[in-house]
Amino acid sequence: MKHRIAIWAAAGFLVASGWAVYFLVRSKDHLIEPIVSTLIRLTCPIAIVGSHYPVSLYSTLVANVATYALIGLLVEILRRKLNRSTNQDVSLRET
Q: Which residues of 27-45 are buried (b: 16+ CB within 10 A; e: fewer)?
């Protein structure tokens, strides 16, 4: 379980890093397209706060890692509960 949560956290780091590289490379002359704005807000929730207040790159990375780790924890808890209920249903059917 710990490894899977760590994988979720690593995914959060990679997503935030990818957005950071995108905005560093992107031309400053062009406005952010609506689809890009929507995607960044879905994949990097701290961007919602960042659109109103200045947020540093490091705090964005940390917040995104924490968000994805929390999502991973919730997914793992749900996965375990669903597996237990499925295993109990199978054992009840066998008897």
A: eeeeeeeeeeeeebeebbb
Buried b (16+ CB within 10 A) or exposed e, 55-92: eeeeebbebbbebbbebbeeeeeeeeeeeeeeeeeeee
The one-letter amino acid code at 21 reads: V
| Structure confidence by residue, pLDDT tens digits, 24-81 | 898 788 878 889 889 999 999 888 888 888 888 899 999 999 999 999 999 999 999 9
The model carries a pTM of 0.79
The neighbour count for residue 52, using CB atoms within 10 Å, is 7
The closest alpha carbon to 10, from 51, 66, 52, 83, belongs to: 66
3-state DSSP assignment of residue 87: helix
* Terminal alpha carbon distance of the chain: 30
